[in-house]
Amino acid sequence: MATITSHVLYSKRSSPSFCEPLIVGLEANDLGGSIPSPNDSDTTKSKVMQRMINERRKIKYKPFICLSDMIGAQTTSRDFACAGAASKSMYGTAEAMWQPGMSKDQLVQVCGRAFLSAMERDCLSGYGAIIYLITPDGIEEYDLMCRND
């Protein structure tokens, strides 16, 4: 998805779309083994299916974070990414406060502080933000309001 987005943006570079797509998701981190095919030595369907289930249990997922600029240049990160009008201000706060292995509440607090800090310094950032927290249980939404003066 990130590569396709990059190609589409680059193909329109003479009249770019004014957006900075943030592409996130989970990618498989294969820990060994391969998905068996029916041509393997065990030709019965039940044995092949059981081996497929066992092999899939070994696959772990890791976060995929990719930020793209207006002409499709990609930046990937293992930790976090900031995009938008005040992204430089957000990066400073996020780098200072983010730590690996944070709880959900801590992560939402750090994101909220980074957004508020950036919105206080940049008048073009708007009056609020929505924080989406992606967990194995689903997507949680937090509405962050900023001053309106």
Q: Radius of gyration over alpha carbons?
A: 21 Å
N-to-C span:
39 Å
Helical content, roughly? 25-40%
Estimated structural class: alpha+beta
Describe the sheet with the most strands: 3 strands, antiparallel
Global shape: globular
Helix-strand pattern, N to C? HEHEEHHEE
In percent, how much strand structure appears in the residues?
A: 15-25%
What features would you highlight for this structure?
single chain, two-stranded antiparallel sheet, 4 helices, alpha+beta, 5 strands, 149 residues, 35% helix, globular, three-stranded antiparallel sheet
Description:
The protein is an alpha+beta fold and 149 residues long. The chain has helices at residues 2-11, 45-57, 87-97, 104-121; strands spanning 22-29, 60-68, 74-77, 128-135, 138-145. The strands form 2 sheets. It has a 3-stranded antiparallel β-sheet, covered by helices on one side. The longest helix has 18 residues, at 104-121. Mean pLDDT is 79; it is low at 32-36.
